[in-house]
Amino acid sequence: MKKAWVLVLLLVVAAAAGWYYWQQQQLAQALPLGIVSSNGRLELERFDIASLYPGRVEQMLVAEGEDVEVDQLLVKLSSSQSESQLVAAQATEQRAHEMVSQARAGRKQGEQAMARANAQIDAQIEQQKIAKMELDNARKMRREDLVSDSEVTKRQAAYNGAVAVVQAARAAYAEAQAAVQQIDAQVAEANAGVNQAKAQEKSAASMNDDMLIRSPKAGRVEYRIAEVGSVIAAGSKMVSLLDTEDVSMTLFLPNGQMSGLQVGNDARVVLDGLDSVWPAKVSFIASQAQFTPKSVETQNEREKLMFKVRIKLPVEIAKEYKGLLKGGMTGNGYVRSNTDVVWPNNLAINLPKKGQS
């Protein structure tokens, strides 16, 4: 008895499939010239989210089938290592700033030493001038026998001492100047250390932020590839997302129906189980023909060369009906190869009511 019921069920399914296929063939035959059709499935563009760095999965913040927004947090990886690197980089930058401050303080002291040496030079030059005047005066008076030779010798020694003091002051100034130049080099080196520390801190902060895996765009979670506790390598896939705004259908059309078909031509999509007609555009046409895939229902399967054609729904419509449109939904795609042909009434755009989305 049970086998009989199974047989009846199989016959009903076969009859329904045959009726559907006949209906589609009749509809295809009833299409005006310039409009071609083929069956297909809705496809949502898939993109995988991977980790830039190795780590341990601490939290999985999304579930399969969940819609996500751009920049939404998907996965949190263990960030203890990256946080330690960030703290170390910040400490290095702080030390570099302290070195700059110390070097600048040393330069200020060097400038003060130069100023004192310069003032000393000026003062000793005045003393040297006085000593020279007294020496010249003593020599003149000696020629007139007004002073003794010892007085001239005394004035000469005083002048020589003044010259020596000036030279010593100039040497002190040169030494202070050299010290300042050396400190300038230290300041430049310390500033370079600050810049290097800032770069390290920025890199560490970026790495720490990259431990929080975010969605680059809005979409729907298809698979959770990693789970909490998993240890992953750099570049490992974490979550697979579907782009709910990139909805298309791939058709395979015979060579004889490709005349005049161009990218950008109008198209229509009719999905099984929905009394709706969706607008679309031809977004891709294969440059070479291929054998008919098994999924395409044609009379002379694998005997005709077919062209792969992709038709894409407008982004705004895909976004509006993202809850209704799902990858894998079957239906038929219709393409207008002749822009002068008017779409028949049964293929006029007919979107679902808002409540259905």
Automatic annotation (TrEMBL):
<dbReference type="GO" id="GO:0005886">
    <property type="term" value="C:plasma membrane"/>
</dbReference>
<feature type="coiled-coil region">
    <location>
        <begin position="107"/>
        <end position="136"/>
    </location>
</feature>
<keyword id="KW-0175">Coiled coil</keyword>
<feature type="coiled-coil region">
    <location>
        <begin position="166"/>
        <end position="200"/>
    </location>
</feature>
<protein>
    <submittedName>
        <fullName>HlyD family secretion protein</fullName>
    </submittedName>
</protein>
